[in-house]
Amino acid sequence: MALPPADYFWPELQVQTSRSSGPGGQNVNKVESRVELRFHLATSRLLTDEQKLRLQEKLAGRITTDGYLLVVAQEDRSQLRNKEHALRKFYALLQENLQQPKARKASRPSAGAVRKRLEEKKRHSDKKANRRLDF
């Protein structure tokens, strides 16, 4: 399934910034470079009910108790680049988890595979039977 461009979701996304942890020297203490993207699944008008249900099942660990899908980015020292990282992560999550799984086709083992399995079972059985006869 092809998703629309990332800016299609922009009106329904909430962006929140905070101070990042990790390396960065004094920059970490002054600049809010950590970016949190929040997307409320239940109220989204961009996704169908089936898509919402699929995302809630597959991304249960990333959804808050309020029903928001949470994506965090703090890899970079720049807030703008972290915002881009978060958007890419969000879009990748949607694309990965909205794909329909392929239907499994029922198949049967080949005649050769069945014969080989039965021969191996017979060999194993004979080996165990021979152990009982030897004292």
Notes on the structure:
The protein has helices spanning 26-30, 49-58, 79-97, 111-133; strands at residues 13-18, 34-40, 68-73. Helix content is 42%, strand content 14%. The mean pLDDT is 83. It is α+β, with helices and mostly antiparallel strands and 135 residues long. The termini are far apart. Strands 1-2-3 form a three-stranded antiparallel beta sheet. It contains four helices and three strands. GO terms for molecular function: peptidyl-tRNA hydrolase activity. Its EC number is 3.1.1.29.
Write the layout of secondary structure elements.
Elements: E1 13-18, H1 26-30, E2 34-40, H2 49-58, E3 68-73, H3 79-97, H4 111-133
Antiparallel strand pairs: 1-2, 2-3
Name the average pLDDT.
83
Secondary-structure element series:
EHEHEHH
Total strands: the figure is 3
Total helix count?
4
Q: Which overall shape is indicated by the principal axes computed on the Cα atoms? A: elongated
- Main structural class: alpha+beta
Helix coverage percent of residues? 40-55%
Kindly report the spatial arrangement of strands forming the biggest sheet: 1-2-3
**Radius of gyration computed on alpha carbons:** 27 Å
Segments where pLDDT lies below 50 for 5+ residues?
none
Q: Beta-sheet strand percentage?
A: 5-15%
What would the keywords be for this entry?
alpha+beta; 3-stranded antiparallel sheet; 14% strand; peptidyl-tRNA hydrolase activity; Pep_chain_release_fac_I; EC 3.1.1.29; hydrolase
Quick summary of this structure?
The protein is of the alpha+beta class and 135 residues long. It has helices at residues 26-30, 49-58, 79-97, 111-133, and strands spanning 13-18, 34-40, 68-73.
